[in-house]
Amino acid sequence: MGFTKTFSDGSTPEIAIIGGGLSGICAAIQLQRMLQLTTYKIFEAESDLGGTWLLNSYPGCACDNLSHLYSLSFAPNYNWSRKYAPRAEILDYLQSTARAYNIYGKVQFSTKIKRMRWKDDRKKWSLEWSNLMTGEEGVYEADVVVHGTGLFNIPQIPQEFEGFRGEMWHSARWRHDVDLTNKRVGIVGVNASAIQIIPEVADSKVKVLHVYGRNPGYVTPQFDDSYSNTWKFLFRKIPLFYTIYTTLWYYTLDSTFLVYFSFAWYSAVHRAIIYLTAWWQRYRQIPDPVLRAKLRPTRVLGSKRTVLSNNFYSALTQEHVEYHREAIVKVSGNRITTADDETRELDVLILATGFAIQKNFPPGYWIGRGGVDVTETWMPVARTYFGTCTPRAPNFFMTWGPMSGSFHQSVTSVVEAQVMFMIKTLSTMMENDYTSMEITEKATYNFASLAQRRSALSATVQPHPPAPILPQKKRPQPTKSGVGISFWFGTLAEFRFRLSNYSPQLFNSTPHEDV
């Protein structure tokens, strides 16, 4: 498919990219590759590119998806050291890829976007920004906005822990200046991050490690291994070999979405394999039947993400490690009391308590067409078109937006599909000299209908229960603060196929002369 690369007068749109992680880097590179467009600026709140992989520097941090599937398709990395690459290697890949495409010169670092407002009269976005280092503030006007901050960038700090008087931090903001040697350490949570952290902390000469986890999940082995020089040579020198290798793994892992179906005959095999594998992992690594019983999941398989680890269970069997399944009922000073009325003193408390997804779009942050707060139209559940566009927000694109995440696969293919959808839309905009393109209510309604039918088959627990599909002409009314976020329930191959069916009829467009 050929793309139109300029408006009829030879100009190109001014584009603001918010976020300099995987999504922002992908969007910037594709704008250059596919449209030869360089009139964009990236706003990044941190001091460097890398997003999640820059912020998350906790011990044991690594990719829990296959490294080669995490690579961008147009910038493959043939030199991954392992099947599941460590954090430093992924960060280096993202930053070196950005340097290879000269992205750094387009970034305004340490800059946070405070507010975005669509100017109806000018058909442009006004972005209010603030420099987090100098305090300088300003306004940037853009024709198009690409929101690529991701979902997992704002730590969730439960209010009950705010009064803890020892050293405390969230796993995504690791304190490397605190030595854990001979300290009494507590870790709250047994999610994907915690499962990587716990073995490392247990082996770091702490005096005692208390692990608090009310809802342990299903843990299966991580069949990790290093790539020899022979493998790297084959990847680099034989493109067909690399393509076959990554394609086979992609579709093999994509089939595992069946694990997240509620009980059905077509998901029985996958669910049985994962259930038995998780059971055997627990039985083999935990000889103590009492501890093994504490770690037995009570939720239905597929209601939470299945995680991979070879050493999580064995770390919990060490003499100086204690696992507590009872709920935390009180935090006072440096003491933690659980529901069994046991109180323990801690020197350090580490929170692996997830992320505040709703805070990515706080009230007043995103003002769309007609002065409407866009997130209010998302109550009680977000309305998007494949997590990429939403009504009342012309010329606005998201990567990894609501209803586009995945439990079972790398998010990279989602991001690439969404960025390509944006590229096609921008090409249409320039070809027809449109000043704005806004996804239609009908398109989002049809996608919401599809998403709800699919989610009804899912065993996953959504952060907010699905809302009834509303008539197209009615706007959802605010029910409470926060944004209903859900995931795409299906294979990523299907997601990419459906999103690739681009049509200008999906949008309401404004010709230049109407401005």
Automatic annotation (TrEMBL):
InterPro entries documented for this protein: FAD-bind_Monooxygenase_sf (IPR051209), FAD/NAD-bd_sf (IPR036188), Flavin_mOase-like (IPR020946)
Keywords on record: FAD, Flavoprotein, Oxidoreductase
GO function terms (MF aspect): flavin adenine dinucleotide binding; N,N-dimethylaniline monooxygenase activity; NADP binding
Superkingdom: Eukaryota
Keyword Flavoprotein belongs to the record: yes
Protein family membership: Belongs to the FAD-binding monooxygenase family.
Official protein name in the record: FAD/NAD(P)-binding domain-containing protein
Species the sequence originates in: Linnemannia gamsii
